Each structure stands twice: as C-alpha cells, then as structure tokens.
Amino acid sequence: MERWTKEHEARILEQTRAGGFTVDWSRYRYTLDAASVRATREAFVRLYRAGLIYRGERMVNWDPRLRTAISDLEVLHSEEDAELVYVRYPWADGTPGGIEVATVRPETIFGDVAVAVHPDDERYRSLIGRTVRVPMTDRTAPVIGDPLVDPTFGAGALKVTPRHDPVDREIGLRHPELPTPVEIFDDRARLTGAWVPSDLHGLDRPTARARTIERLTQDGVLLRREPHRHSVGRSERSDEVVEPRLSTQWFVRMPPLAEPVVAAVRAGAIRIHPDRWNPTFFRWMEGLQDWCISRQVLWGHPIPVEHCRTCGHVEVDLAPAERCSQCGSRDLTPDPDVLDAWFTSWLWPFAILGWPEATADLDRFYPTQLLVTGRDIMFFWVARMMMAGYYFTGKPPFTDVYFTGTVRDERGRKMSKHLGNSPDPLDLIRERGADALRFSLVFPNPTDEDGPYGRTALDGGRNFLTKLWNVVRFAGPYVPTGDRAPPVPELTDAAALEHRWILARYRRTAEEVDAAISAFAPTRAASALHAFLWHDVADRYVELSKEALSGRLGEPAQRDARATLAFVLERSLRLLHPIVPHVTEELWHALPHPEGLLATAPWPSADEAPADPEAELAMEPVLEAIRLLRNVRAEEGIAADATPRGWIRPSNSEVLEVLETARGAIVRLAKLGALELLPADAAAPAGAGSRIAPFGECYLELPGRSAGPSAALVREREMLAALLAKTDGRLADAGFRARAPPEVVAEAEAKARELRERIRRIDEHMSGTASPGAAA
RNA sequence: GGGCUCGUAGUCCAGCGGUUAAGACGUCGCUCUCACACAGCGAAGAUCGCCGGUUCGAAUCCGGCCGAGCCCA
Q: Residue A230 CA to nucleotide B68 C1', Å?
C-alpha cells in the first residue's frame, strides 16, 4: 500500500512539474500526514460533541466486492435491462389462488416479511389482513396496506424485504407488528442466514436469481416473466451492483451544515463560475441526505472512537482514552472502521494552513480566493469544503469557484480507463510540449464545458506556438536591444497608419484579456490573443511593415516600425505568459527586457497603449482593398508570379488620402505591377476585373483577355439587393418608424442609401457603362 | 420518476432584442514568395432543432414539442 502510494505520488508530481504549474512546493502536504491526522480527528470530535456526528443502523449502499459501505455520491445509476418476474404468493390457509407479486429481485423473496398493497387499491383492499405463504419457504406473511406502494407497477402488490430495500425498510418501520427481518446476504452479497434454505447458501446474486426462478417454476408459483428496463446503482469504484444493506455506520448530519452555505452562495459571498451551475448546486444542497462517513476498508484515517467492552460506552476524544470514562474499565477497543477520504479533504483549505492552530498562515491566507476544479466533484468536495469552512472557521474557504468541464475524446466520449482513451499528459508533453498541451486545453474549446480533446486540439496549440516562435524569430534582427521593456512607441511618421493601427488593436486585445480573466473566461482571453498575434500581428502588421523594417523607407520609418513591433510583441508575451509559460519565457529573452524573468514581470496595463478608433477605421479600406485585389487574382486565375496593374477609385478624398499612404503596401501585398489611384470622376479602366466595396472600387488588369461578367459581382449584387429589400421593408413599416428608437431608424436609412449606391455602381459595371462623375 | 443544462455551417463553438451571424478545425482552389507548408493567399459552406407567442423588430425573451447530456431518486 505504501509503495503504491509512493509510485502514484511520484507520477502525479512529475505531471504537475512537467505541466508548468506554479506551485509553492514548500507547502506540500499529504492527506495522511501528521497534521492532517490531527485536523481530521479534531473535526470529528467537534462535530461529535455538537451532536452532528452519530452512529446508527441505516440502509446504506453496500459494495459487495470491496465489502464496504459507500456514500450516496459514490453510486452511479444507469438504465439496465432486467426481467420482471411475476410470482404467486399462495394463501396460507390453503384456499386456492393467492396474490400476485412482481419483482426484479426474486432472490430476495427469502427475506420477505409481508406483501403490501396500496390501501386505496380496489383490487386488493379486501385482502388486507389475510396471510400468504412466502414462496420456497415455510414462513407466512401478512398482506398489509401502505400508501408507499405504487399500484401501477407490476401487479400492484409489493413484496416487503426490509433489510434489502430502502422503500421496504420504510414500510417495515411503519408496521411494527411485522416480524424482525433476518439478513439474507453476507458481506459479499451471497445468500446466507436462517431464512434461506441451506442448499442455496453461498450463491451470489445472479446465480441465486437463476436458481430461485427455477425453484419458483418447479413450485408452480412463477406466473410469467417479462423484460423490464430499470435503473441500477453501481459502485463507482468496483462497478459492482450496489446492495442496499441495513448496517451500523457513522453519519454526519448535513442540513445544519448546509444552511450557512446556501445563504452564503445566495448572498454572493461565494460565487460559482459559470453561474449556470447555481441551480444544480442549490438543488443538491437543499435536499441533502446525511453523509455516511464510515468505511470498511484498510486504508484511511481511523475513526477516532473507542468502545468500552464492559459497559458499551463510546469514547470520543482528541487523544485515545486510557480507560472508560463511564465505568473505568480498561477494556477498550477501537472502532474498526476508517473515515471516508473526503472527510479529510473537506478540511483542506484551512487544514493545510495549520488549523486547528491559529497560525499566521491561516490568518494571512484564509479565506482563499479561487478554487479551480472539475465539476464532477462539485458535491463530493466543493460543497463539503464550503460546509466545513463555515462550520469550523465561520468563513468561506474561498470566494470564487471556477468549474472546468470534463475533457472528452474526439468522438465525444468520456475518458476512461475502460475505453483506454485517456492519454497520459506526460506523453502529450513529450510529443508536443507542455505549452502546446496547456494552450490546447483553453483553446479553441471552452474550459468550462465538456469538450472534445485530441490530436486536433493539441496540434492546434503546437501550430500556434510555432507561429509565435516564428514571429519573434522574424522580429529578432529588427527590434532594438536593451535592458528595459520596450516603451510605448512615439511615432514620428504620422502617415504610417499600420503602427497606429496595430497599437490600437493591441490595446483592444489587452482590454479583452483583462475583461475575460475578470469574468472567469480563460478561453476568451486565449482566443483574443490567438487572433491578435496570428492574424493582426503576423498576417497583417508584419507584412505591412516589412518594407519600413528593412530600412528602404528611411531611418525614421524604420525606427517607428522597430519600436512598435518590439512593444507589441513584448507586451503580448506578458499577456500570454500565464497560459504558455515556457515558450513565452524563452521568447521574451530574445526581446528587449529588464533583468529577471518574465514570470515575475508585471502584468501590462492595457491603457498604456493609446485607444485609436480612427486608425482602426482608416485601416479598413487598406486591408479591404488588398483582399479584394487578391480575390480578383484568385478568382480570375492570374498566375502567382504575374504582376498586373491595379486601380482603385475611392469614393471620397479621405479614403484616397489613406490609400495613398499605403500604396506601397498594397502594391506589395496584392502583387501588383503598379497601382493607380483614380479620382472619383475618372473613367473606370476598360477590360479590368473589378470589385465594388463601400469605400470605392478596385480594378485589376486581366492580361491577355477582357473581363467577362464576374460571377462574384453577380452574387454580390444579389446579396445586396436582398439586403436592401429587407431594409426597405423595415423602413416602409409604420410601426418601425413610430416605435423604434430614432437612431435605429436613422441607421437603417443610412444603410439603405449606401446599399442603393453600391447596387447602382455594380449595375454600371455590369452594363459596361461606368461613367465618370456618376458616383457623386 | 424528478430536476438542471444544452440544441447555431461537415465538426467544435462565439453571439443572448435591431450588425451582410464571429472564429477555430475540416473541405476546395492557388502558392515551397527571403519568420513560418506546424505556412500564406483566396473561396465555398448556417432559412441559428421544430411549432406557436411577445415585440415595430427574435438566433437572442416566453410557452409547448422533439432531441442530447448531466445530476438526483
């Protein structure tokens, strides 16, 4: 047992280290170390003295393979196919006939003490009080009335086996006149005891069921059998069908512990994220059953109780008693059971800080802030920690809980040992790196939902990090060196829009990351950084500024580009660092940076970069023009190495001005031979491929042929026409004009105008009658 | 049996009263262009599960139905 523990401990620690978790290793703790033993014992004694722990005979979930009681939470219910067996219980006085009983568990007939019917059931009311003979036995049993019986199930009559079914137990308790039931199963759920014929002793449940059916058939009391699907409870650990069994166990009284927790969550003292789990949480908390904390297993904290063999007194104290406090006897025997492991775990948030001592750690770090854990242990652990927190310390153990979903395989199945579809994180780390693994867990699928995980996600993470690596590698030779973090660039060349634009985009990204983290939405933060670094920085900004970086545009332009690139990359690495610590740390050292580690560098404040909506807006026509010209290239099948001439006719002078400054970039990125910017009243170039955008028109020379009617243009016109019809429809609606807010109406009117204009321009092109000055 | 949650392109998922419904993966073209083919460029692909209601206006709010998942008994 020791060895097994050590091996698994080592493996978990290795996974934690390899995964790059930032952990205070000096506070490493184990649930069975001396301090945990002390805290566990203290908790038990306090609850016992407060009357919140009791020992009692209750119906518990018994795992016959592990031979221990388990808690309700450890039982997994699922629908399984079974057989409903109809059996006649003959009248004890020998009158022909009898009463028909349906059961899925004929092997428990030996434990019957009664047959119960619903007191209002017309079919059976007159039979209440008569006596039947229990099949296969010499015993008799009365027919009783009890409202717990479901008259619609089976034949409407229920066999009552109080030691082996919770409902039957309840009925038994309500009918004290019934004989005391005898147990018919041993701790392995094999038939045993005085009520079972000796030749059946020792049979397990499936065998017993088969033999019972045979015997009932021989006896002529088996009426019929029909297939029946019902819910079966299995032990989470052994997968064995749980046997309800009446036994003496230790329990914690839950309702008094739950009350302050429900109040705290309702009042917002503890917040659950995402908050859609609140209903589930409350529903469970408000219907709590007492917690069975004793286990009949080898490994665990012993129950800190001794029983006096002389007088039966129970000793419960912080230290084992020498003698019985009641009768003075020295003949004390320890309780044979151990505690449910969760009984130690639920103390964890304060036990690790030294509780029950009033330590400095406890004072400083408790309550803690955030618990991140899997939703599957919401009840086992999280809710119980809250209860223990309030009960033992009067405070919440944490102020926020973030529930992650369960990772599934790529086919959407739960990962399980049985299916063999759960990869070892160490293998994934060896294969693709710890950061690829980390990134793929937050992107693209939300961390708080059950999502598929596999090759695709992992490779996606690896690809993104490769991209990041390459961008920094590209930037390396250009960025200035230095021993401080790049400052916010002071741009000298005001006309170079791309720098202003990327800084504005950076600011938006940083704001989104901050907002996402505050909202406990790590996936949103990762998405924002992914989109920014890959598409804005790598695909657009780097391409746009290559010319300036090279120095071909002169020294001031180069300086602006270098400073901006350095700033954007350095800050982005800081924002990305919590998600992918290893790669960002490494790359950070390739950029200008202060002494020390990225891990300890301060979190960048989003507002150091200027918000610049004008730059963002102005950049749109540039990027759009490049896209449209490339689109014509691709659609018209222009050779990759061809450099056709291009024209843009902007619809107003501001756009013209912006495009003028970006002319070089457009030429390069659209691979043009030359780009001419046409005045609004110029004629459209003849025979060129064209695209109509809100900001103006783009033309591309089609070498060696004339442009046919463009399919893309036709599609575009259809789309715009449909949109215009929709918008016009809205505007024609008197209700819309009367009731919608004026700004919405104005927006719709502006949209209709713009659409009409664009359609007109498309029509001109398609009829080949584009005329100068018509756009005014 | 009860409850909760979720149904949006082939897949995963964002949006949660007024945008040409965002993105990622996959698919289809073109390209090994001096950071990156683990890539670049371009494109196609969604009547937002179904029916009804509220509203000038619904993917978004309400009700019902169907389907899936989870939790509890």
A: 20
Whole-Å CA distances, A393 to A200, A355, A358, A387, A399: 54, 9, 10, 10, 14
From A759, A683, A674, A672, select the one nearest A723 (Cα to Cα). A759
Q: Are strands A338-339 and A294-295 parallel, antiparallel or unpaired?
A: antiparallel
A314-316 vs A398-404, strand pairing mode: unpaired
Strand B nucleotides, any atom under 7 Å to a protein CB? 1, 3-6, 11-14, 18-20, 23-26, 29-33, 35-36, 38-44, 55-57, 69-73
Q: Would you say the C-beta of A214 is within 7 Å of strand B?
A: no
- Residues 424-483, chain A, CB closer than 7 Å to nucleic strand B: 444-446, 449-452, 456, 459-460, 462-463, 466-467, 470-471, 473-474
Residue A709 pLDDT class (50, 70, 90 cuts): low
The burial of A746, by beta-carbon neighbours within 10 Å (0-12 exposed, 13-18 middle, 19 or more buried), is given as exposed
**DSSP letter assigned to residue A579:** T
Nearest nucleotide to the CA of A464, by C1', is B38
For chain A, which domains are there?
28-61+246-404 (3.40.50.620), 71-243 (3.90.740.10), 427-611 (1.10.730.10), 641-776 (no CATH)
Residue A726 (CA) to nucleotide B46 (C1'), in angstroms, measures 19
Angle at A662 between CA A771 and CA A612, to 5 degrees: 110
Residues 6+ apart with CB under 8 A from A398: A270, A349, A367, A368, A369, A370, A371, A385, A389
Cα–Cα distance, A688 to A706 (Å, whole number): 7
Helix H or strand E encompassing A713: helix A711-732
Element (H, E) at A202: none
Q: Which nucleotide is nearest to A477 (CA to C1')?
A: B35
pLDDT at residue A267 tops 90? no
pLDDT, residue A409, reads 77
Residue A163: name the closest of A206, A109, A111 by CA: A111
- In sequence order, the β-bridge partners of residue A771 are none
| Residue A724, both tokens | 């215009």
Residue A263 has pLDDT above 50, yes or no: yes
Q: Are A247 and A57 in contact (CB under 8 A)?
A: yes
ipTM value: 0.94
Q: What is the pLDDT of residue A143?
A: 93
The candidate with the shortest Cα–Cα distance to A632, out of A646, A621, A619, is A646
- pLDDT > 60? residue A772: no
Question: Pairing mode, if any, of strands A114-117 and A140-145?
Answer: parallel
DSSP A342: H
Q: Which residue has the tokens 């045993």?
A: A192
| pLDDT tens string A385-426 | 999 999 999 999 999 999 888 878 777 777 766 667 778 888
Give me A704's structure tokens: 């060696």
Closest Cα partner for A131 from A120, A115, A146? A115
What's the pLDDT at A69? Answer: 87
- Residue A535's identity, in one-letter code, is H
Q: Rounded to an integer, what distance in angstroms lies between the CA atom of residue A664 and that of residue A659?
A: 9
Residues of chain A above pLDDT 70, percent:
97
Distance of alpha carbon A227 from alpha carbon A28, whole angstroms: 54
Is any atom of strand B within 7 angstroms of residue A279's beta carbon? yes
The segment with the largest mean pLDDT, out of A8-22, A74-88, A350-364, A698-712, is A350-364
Cα(A502)–Cα(A525) distance, integer angstroms: 18
Spacing of C-alpha A132 from chain mean position: 55
Contacts of A299 (CB under 8 A, 6+ apart): A1, A338
Lowest model confidence (mean pLDDT) among A636-650, A693-707, A740-754: A693-707
Encode pLDDT of A564-598 as tens digits. 999 999 999 999 999 999 999 999 998 998 888 99
